[in-house]
Amino acid sequence: MSGMRTREPGEVFGPRMTLFADMLSVGLATAVLCLPVVTAPAALSTACAVLRGAGEGRPATAGRYFATLRRRLRAGDLAAGAVAPAGALLFLADLALAGAGLPGAPLFAVVAAGIGTAALVVGLRACARPESLTEWPAAVREAARDAVRDAGGSALVLLAVATAALCAWMLVPLAFLVPGPLALALTAVDVRLAVMSGSR
User: Is there a contact between 188 and 56 (Cβ–Cβ < 8 Å)?
Assistant: First the structure.
C-alpha cells in the first residue's frame, strides 16, 4: 500500500501497525456480518474496498466499513450471497456422490475439485474487484479474466485461503479475525495485478 505516511519522531507505532489494527477491526466486523451467510460476499467485498482505501489515504476503520456496507447493500448482494452457499452445497453433494463408489468416481472427484477450486478463486477475486461494490456480474467477469491471465495471483489467493483455514483450524477463536487478513490478501493481489498491468 503506497502513499502511507512515515513514522513521526517519537511515534511508537508506524502506519503499518495502524493498518494492521484497522485490518483486524474490519475483519472482526466482516466475520460478524458473514454469520447470516447470504451477506458474506457483500461483507468481504466491502472489507476489500475499505482496506483498498487505506492505500489511497482514507481511514480503514470499522465505522467506515459499516457506513460503506449500509450504502451498498442491495438485492444483487443478497443474490450473490445465495449463489455462494448453493454452489458450496452442490460441490459437497458431488463429492459425496463420487465417494459413493459410482463408476468413474475418481476422475469425477478430480474434475469436481478442479471446478470447485476455480469457482472459489474467481469468487474471491470478484470480491476484491472495485466493480463488486456496484455490479456483481461485471466483477465476476473481470475476476475470471484475472484468474486466467494472472495464475500467480490465483495461487496467492489459494495460499491465503489455506493459511486462513489453517489458522481457524488451529485456534477456533481466530476464525473471527481471519476475514481481515484474507480481505487484505485479496486486495493486495488485485492491486498487484493493477500495478503490473498499469491499469485501473
Answer: no
In 50-68, which positions are buried (b, 16+ CB within 10 angstroms) versus exposed (e)?
bbbbbbeeeebbbebbeeb
Compute the residue count for the chain: 200
Residue type, 117: T
CA 26/CA 35 separation, integer angstroms: 15
Asked if 23 contacts 60 with a C-beta cutoff of 8 angstroms, the reply is: yes
Per the CB < 8 A criterion, the answer to whether 26 and 186 are in contact is no
Which DSSP string do the residues of 89-141 spell out, in sequence order?
HHHHHHHHHHTTT-TTHHHHHHHHHHHHHHHHHHHHHHHHSGGGGT-HHHHHH
Query: How large is the C-alpha radius of gyration of the chain?
Result: 18
pTM of the model: 0.83
For 178-194, write each residue's pLDDT tens digit: 999 999 999 999 999 88
Q: What is the tens place of the pLDDT at every residue in 144-164?
A: 999 999 999 999 999 999 999
